[in-house]
Amino acid sequence: MLVLAAAVAAGAAYRYLQPERKAAVPGETVSVSLGDIEENVTAQGKLEPKEYVDVGAQVTGQLQKIYVKIGDDVRAGQLLAQIDPRIYAARVAADEANIKNLQAQLAGQQAQVVFAQQQYDRNRELLQSQGVSVQDFQNSEFTLKSAKATAAAIQAQIEQVESTLNGDKTNLGFTKIFASMDGTMVDQKAREGQTLNANQTTPTILQLAKLDTMTVRAQVAEADVMRLSRDMAVYFTTLGSGERRWQGKVRQILPTPEVINNVVLYNVLVDVDNRDRQLMTGMSTQMFFVLGKAEQVPLLPVNALGQRLRGEDQGRGQAYKVKLVSGADVQEKTVHIGLRTRRFAQVLDGLALGDRVQANSDNGDKSKNRRKDPLPGGGVPRL
Prior knowledge:
Radius of gyration: 44 Å
Mean pLDDT: 86
Largest sheet: 6 strands, antiparallel, barrel
Number of helices: 4
Low-confidence stretches: 1-26, 363-383
């Protein structure tokens, strides 16, 4: 009995004096492997022409003729449509006749001025020799001044009617609608025979657009818009485009948001070349704003990342705790992460290729869909 008690005591003392070792926690493990990674911000967008103009009517009248059809290419200055010009032509003719009448009156009045001037000059000479009375001289002076004033009034009336004539001629010119730029007719809002009322609002007849360059108006959530910048690389796909990607750059981030169902969205404009005319107005796009990308770098699935450490990412990326598995042992290490997607993170330091790390079922990302890909792809979400 004494020998047995001594053996038990010796065993307990041995276990007490041995350093504590962590046992491997059962569960899935993942390894650090080489791959490509691309971190991006995704958004939905709509295509529209970069340059377009709504061609409207500046005068009221019946739309007599439209000379182009949807899809036609037009040149600046080309006649597009004709509004009934008869009312405006009649106004121009009336103004011109009124001017001729006033000019005739002015000619007669100018003759009166000449006659009054002659009487005034003659009476002024006779007054010196007392050939006329002072009253007759004053009457001739009054007649001269009155004749000159009447002539000036008629001249002012002529200028007024000439101004009206210029306005009516301008309106008559507006009955012919010309293209203001080179482009393609992409939409028609009015039909031949329709009466256009331009008294309150400008009625739109058709729309011209330059389709060689299109603009995507992407709506980016407020949580992501601060990560974007001007001239940032971006690509997008469209429904039905297959694997084709269109490349572009951010032209502008509009400062005023749109609030849709209490969600704050900012419009980001991206220009793209469309000389092959594959992109059309109104198409939906899936946008990928490229924050950064790297090829053949060490990658770790994000479900292996543990607690994020604050204050330890000064120029070295974000710091996380991970559990490195080595045989039956599990060792806690700090790893610095660079680019990151929903599936993978770029390892900057702390782990080497081939290292196996314990996956977390409840990590900071709370990822529920873990993938077992041995080599990750580009980390790019698809449509």
